[in-house]
Design goal:
The complex is a heterodimer of chains A (333) and B (327). Chain A is α+β, with helices and mostly antiparallel strands and 333 residues long. Chain A has two domains: 15-168, 2-Layer Sandwich (Aldehyde Oxidoreductase, domain 4), CATH 3.30.365.10; 177-322, Aldehyde oxidase/xanthine dehydrogenase, molybdopterin binding domain (Aldehyde Oxidoreductase, domain 4). Chain A has helices at residues 40-52, 80-107, 133-141, 210-230, 281-284, 286-298, 309-332; strands spanning 15-21, 27-31, 59-63, 114-117, 120-123, 130-132, 147-153, 177-186, 193-205, 235-236, 239-240, 259-265. In chain A, the strands form four sheets. Chain A has a four-stranded mixed β-sheet. A three-stranded antiparallel β-sheet of chain A has the order 4-5-6. In chain A, helix 4 packs across helix 6. Chain A is elongated. Chain B has a five-stranded antiparallel β-sheet. Chain B has a four-stranded antiparallel β-sheet with strand order 9-10-11-12, sandwiched between helices. Chain B contains eleven helices and twelve strands. Chain B is globular, with a radius of gyration of 20 Å. With 327 residues, chain B is an alpha+beta fold. The chains are: A alpha+beta (333), B alpha+beta (327). The A-B interface holds A 189-192, 229-230, 234, 236-237, 239-244, 246-247, 249, 251-255, 308-310, 313-314, 317 and B 1, 104, 124-125, 127-129, 132, 135-136, 148, 225, 227-232, 235, 300-302, 305, 308-309, 312-313, 315-316.
Chain lengths: 333, 327
């Protein structure tokens, strides 16, 4: 997108997406953004389909194949929907311009008079002056075959990180806001904590794909549970004792509480379709909400994560000792 | 840091007799059933038999038989099949509870009763990759000279963490062991030895073929503590069987796992017969457990935690069984 200066601190755009249109009317989106389960490939497909106003099933996304996809900076800073989404929209706008130009030639009209609605290109409202998508594709490809266009996104300078080390990575421009409530039961005989329910509200800007947003929030809660309750790295004689996924304990589905998700939509002026992000926002709230819930249950503030059952028991035992000591001192005085 | 699985041959006998013969013919071979414990250890280079004798094709091991004298559970019965058996679920409730709580669904489908009883002992210095153990000069249990848990001693403290054994112990189970000389029947408690390096009293070529439970068991329960609600091995597990008349104990049996190198019956509970179940009795149970368990630094959780949690579970299960009886 180029409504601001494209001068960057990195000497390259923050995201690039290529689109290829071929005779079958299918659009292949090429992105370096790796879909690690967060749904970024679906997001790219939706952004392209929405911008071109064509059916989602025309889009095929090829992600993170370094032989053919443009370089992407990676999944960090909750940036992919924001940056890659904007690059996908930019690429789709360029492809749309190619299609409109082809439709205009075919309809013998000026491009600015041609509009495209739901795979029909038309001038005005007359039936005589409409063209189906397939005919426009054929017209666009008639001379040179498959077309490839490029789109990019560069954060405006105000949003660059400045000159400090690491500042040029281009952090995302729009972080979500999230609130979280955790309800727990604490077993004071074994130190076991059961998370009974979690409520999360997330302001992700516009929810491009609400189902994926919900999934991302649930995933964030699980990731937060892992950080807060079971995942840790300790060493014995200089060697990591949590060296496999049996000891590096990620929560299982048996540990998962009911998670009530509330998507609070807003509109980010720079985000793709007004979206911000739906990745890490709902993660950060879990650990503090958990320890606050535990404090509410047993009146002990735990300051060390993860809150494993042995740590809870240690805290409970220490409190009992202190209580005994206090009553002994009181009796003695 | 997981090495490729070393090459091995697989024998697939149809009968127990053939299995024993195959094992004895190849010293160093191992029996395998579900493989959920052995294969993980083989991947880590802890065990490297060049022949595995697969017991999963032996039909005679996969039955659960009920008659007037009780129940006989074949050693090849899977954990999942055990958990869903209606006789087990209704009469031997603790056994179904323990089976349902073992590892994850995939493990329960593959894993067997015999395999769970023969589960290898575990330790944070032992259940690691070859590279890891090599970097730490190995340990007393495998290839090394030092027990990193208790470096002054010459004893391996790796902990047994099977879930079925403590339940079977409170039911007074007996097991049939098949070997070259035929079958022998022993009390399950005689299978286990308090030695992390050699915790099973089985000779070369011997295998457990069946578990016998007598009829009319007392009400029972099983509970364990672990960090996650699935997958994890127990840090401490407790089985309780309580027979009571009115408000008094007729017989109380408590067995533990996860705390020692063997599962064991808590000693001294026979003195509770005739006693009423009150807070004083529960405190005595707590003290007995804390005195008899010997958790060592074999898990990331502290030894003291496992001691305290085991006692809490024993107290709670006893109180719960009594309350259910009165309800």
């Amino acid at each position: 997108m180029t409504w601001w200066s494209t001068v960057t601190d990195t000497g390259e755009p923050h995201a690039v997406v290529n689109l290829r249109l071929d005779f079958d009317g299918g659009v292949t989106a090429l992105t370096g953004a790796a879909d690690i389960g967060q749904g970024s490939s679906t997001m790219v497909a939706i952004a392209v389909a929405e911008t071109l106003d064509i059916s989602l099933d025309r889009i095929r996304v090829i992600a993170a194949d370094t032989a053919i996809t443009p370089k992407d900076n990676g999944a960090y800073s909750s940036r992919i929907t924001f940056m890659v989404g904007n690059a996908a929209i930019d690429a789709a706008k360029r492809l749309k311009a190619v299609l409109i130009a082809a439709a205009a030639r075919k309809l013998e009209a000026r491009p600015e008079d041609v509009e495209c609605v739901g795979e029909v290109f038309r001038v005005g409202s007359g039936d005589q002056s409409t063209l189906p998508f397939a005919d426009v594709v054929a017209a666009a490809l008639v001379d040179e075959g498959a077309i490839t266009v490029k789109g990019s996104f560069t954060c405006p300078p105000d949003f660059h990180g400045g000159k400090h080390r690491g500042g040029a990575v281009g952090s995302t421009m729009g972080f979500s806001y999230a609130a979280q409530v955790v309800e727990v039961s604490v077993d004071d005989a074994t130190g076991l904590i059961t998370v009974d329910k979690v409520w999360v509200a997330l302001d992700c800007g516009h929810a491009i794909n609400p189902l994926a947003v919900e999934g991302q929030i649930e995933g964030s809660v699980w990731m937060g549970m892992g950080q807060a309750m079971s995942e840790e790295t300790r060493y014995a004689e200089g060697l990591p004792v949590h060296a496999s996924l049996l000891e590096y304990r990620m929560p299982t589905i048996m540990d998962s509480p009911p998670i009530e998700v509330h998507i609070v939509e807003s509109h980010d002026p720079y985000g793709p379709f007004g979206a911000k992000e739906a990745s890490e926002g709902a993660l950060a709230g879990f650990p503090p909400a958990l320890v606050n819930a535990i404090a509410n249950a047993i009146d002990i503030d735990l300051n060390e994560l993860p809150v494993t059952p042995d740590r809870v028991m240690d805290a409970l035992i220490q409190r009992r000792r202190q209580a005994r000591l206090a009553s002994t001192l009181k009796a003695a005085s | 840091m997981t090495a490729p699985l070393a090459e091995f041959r697989l024998a697939q006998p149809d009968t127990v007799k053939e299995a024993i013969a195959a094992c004895l013919k190849h010293p160093g071979s191992r029996f395998v059933a579900g493989g959920t414990d052995l294969l993980v250890n083989m991947r880590r280079g802890i065990s490297s038999p060049d022949l595995l004798v697969d017991l999963s094709g032996i039909d005679e091991l996969t039955e659960i038989k009920t008659n007037g004298r009780g129940v006989t559970i074949g050693a090849g019965v899977t954990i999942a099949a055990l958990a869903r058996n209606t006789v087990i679920a209704t009469q031997y409730r603790a056994l179904a509870q323990a089976a349902e709580a073992i590892a994850g669904p995939g493990h329960r489908i593959m894993g067997t009763v015999g395999g769970n009883l023969c589960l290898d002992t575990r330790c944070i210095y032992y259940n690691q990759s070859e590279w890891w153990r090599n970097a730490n000069a190995y340990c007393l249990k495998h290839r090394g000279d030092i027990c990193h848990v208790a470096p002054q001693g010459q004893h391996c403290h790796a902990a047994y963490s099977g879930d079925l054994a403590p339940v079977l112990l409170v039911f007074g189970a007996e097991i049939d062991i098949a070997g070259a000389q035929g079958n022998r029947r022993i009390s399950l408690s005689d299978l286990y030895v308090e030695d992390g390096k050699a915790h099973l009293a089985l000779a070369e070529g011997e295998l457990i073929v069946a578990v016998h439970l007598s009829s009319d068991p007392p009400p029972s329960g099983y509970a364990k503590v672990r960090v996650r609600a699935a997958i994890d091995f127990p840090l401490a597990g407790v089985a309780v069987a309580l027979a009571a008349s009115d408000t008094n104990v007729s017989s109380l049996r408590i067995a533990l796992t996860g705390t020692n190198s063997r599962p064991f019956l808590l000693a001294g509970t026979e003195t509770f017969a005739g006693r009423s179940i009150d807070e004083k009795l529960l405190q005595e149970i707590d003290r007995l457990v804390q005195k008899q368990v010997q958790p060592m630094r074999t898990t990331v959780a502290s030894a003291n935690y496992r001691r305290v949690a085991a006692a809490a579970l024993a107290r709670r299960l006893t109180a719960r069984l009594f309350a259910e009886r009165m309800a």
